Amino acid sequence: MLLLITLDYLADRYGLEQESPTIIPKIIVLHWTAITTFEKTFKAFNKPALPNWRPDIKSVSGLNVSSQFVVDRDGTIYSLMPETIMARHVIGLNYCAIGVENVGGTKETPLTKKQVNANIWLVKYLAKKYDIAYLIGHYEYTNFEGHELWLEKDAGYRTEKTDPGEDFLNAVKEGTKQLHLKSAPKKLVN
User: Fold this and answer.
1) Is 60 exceeded by the pLDDT of residue 31?
2) Which of the 8 DSSP states describes residue 79?
3) pLDDT, tens digit (0-9, with 9 covering 90-100), for 125-169
4) Would you call 175 exposed, middle or buried from its count of C-beta atoms within 10 A (0-12, 13-18, 19+)?
5) Tally of CA atoms within 13 A in the half-sphere of 52 that contains its CB
6) Which of 8, 28, 43, 190 has its Cα between 20 and 30 A from that of 116?
7) Containing domain of residue 130, as a range?
8) 77 burial type by CB count under 10 A (0-12 exposed, 13-18 middle, 19+ buried)
C-alpha cells in the first residue's frame, strides 16, 4: 500500500512516473514535530495513510506525512525509513529532500542543544554520503517556487510553516559551515 500511494504522490504532485519511490537527495530539510515525545511522533508517522486529524492536507493525497529521520530531545537519532525513499515532509521538494524531524518545538518542549549537535552530526554524515546542495528550515520551502528543483504542480497547495525556528537552523548551519551548503534561495517577488 505504501509503495502505491507514494508512487501516486510522485506522479500526481510532481509529474514523475517512477517504478520505485526513490529520490536523489539534493536538500536536507530540518523540521520540528510540535509533538512532545518520540513515541507519539513515531505513532503519528508509522501508518502509511494520512490520519483523520490532518484534513488540511488530506484532499491532496492520502499518503501520511513522514520523514527519513527523527531526532529525540536527548539527541538520539532514529532512522524511520531509507534515506533514498521519498518521505512526505515538504511541499514541492519531497522528491529530492531528506527530512529530519526534531521532537518538540513547542513552548513546553523547546528544541535542545543535544538536538542541535545531533543535527550537525547528521547533516555532516548525509553530506558526505550524497551530493547535498542545500540545508534549509521547513519555513523556507516556498522560497524554492520558480527554482529548478521546485516541482509542485498545484499552485494553491501551500502551508505556512515556522519550523524548526531561525535560531535552531542557524546553529546547525554554523556547525556545518565547512560543508558550504547553500541556503534557500531568496523569495521571488511576483
Assistant:
1) yes
2) E
3) 999 999 999 999 999 999 999 999 999 999 998 999 999 999 999
4) middle
5) 0
6) 43
7) 2-165+173-179
8) middle
Overall domain count for the chain:
1
Extract the runs of DSSP E, i.e. beta strands, from 67-162: 69-71, 77-79, 97-102, 134-137
- CATH number for the domain including 134? 3.40.80.10
Q: How far apart are CA 14 and CA 174, in angstroms?
A: 32
44, amino acid identity = A
Amino acid occupying residue 25: P
pLDDT digits (tens, 9 = 90+) for 89-122: 999 999 999 999 999 999 999 999 999 999 999 9
Contact 20, 80 (CB under 8 A): no
**Nearest residue to 73 via CA among 29, 39, 123, 97:** 39
